Amino acid sequence: MRAHYLQHVPFEGLGSIAPWLEATGYEVTCTRFFESADLPDVDAIDLLVIMGGPMSVNDETTFPWLISENRFVREFIDSGKPVLGICLGAQMIASALGARVFANPVKEIGWLPVHSVDASTGDLFRFPDTETVFHWHGETFDLPPGAVRLARSDACENQAFQMGTSVIGLQFHLETTQASATQLVTHCGDELMPSTYVQTADQILSVNAHRYAAINQLMGDVLAYLTRGNDE
User: Fold this and answer.
1) DSSP β-bridge partners for residue 31
2) What element of type H or E holds 24?
3) What was the pLDDT predicted at 17?
4) What distance in Å separates the CA atoms of residue 151 and residue 148, rounded to the nearest whole number?
């Protein structure tokens, strides 16, 4: 099985997803748009993971490769194979499916809770009632037609959504490790203007290893749910 991930900046990599893929037996390949915009054949991939980044999906003039990425993501979704989008990746899925991506009323950065949304229809991934997760975003999106909201927060209504049983978008970061959180603070620390939903660098980096372990376990649960069909 082959997993392919789309990486937008050097400091937002797979995090805890990398060891999960290795342990599950995936061959892993990637497109690093900051190096090359070459994309693989959809038929050659079994799982697509779309990472985050500080740009907007609407920045096509500055980053022309967003156009081909959007087209590729839509093609992969249409293939019916599993897709996971994280932060910018979730916004890319929403955009590829025709939904609007726009500035959230407030930025949401740091360790803050999300709340599961009770959606009783269909075979859906279930988040804990409340879980403290890692955020770093200033934009949000409308739900694509046919999508089901899975989680929300006080600052952002659409925190997670699902399309069918093969597509999940997460506005928050479950893949975050201590190393990747440090990278974000290092490269994007100018965004840390304290407010109700923005923590300081010290607050972000002072959490203990158990907090990272909890979200990384939840990331594994999401991946296991999405890839159930790949095991058959």
Assistant:
1) 6
2) helix 17-24
3) 98
4) 9
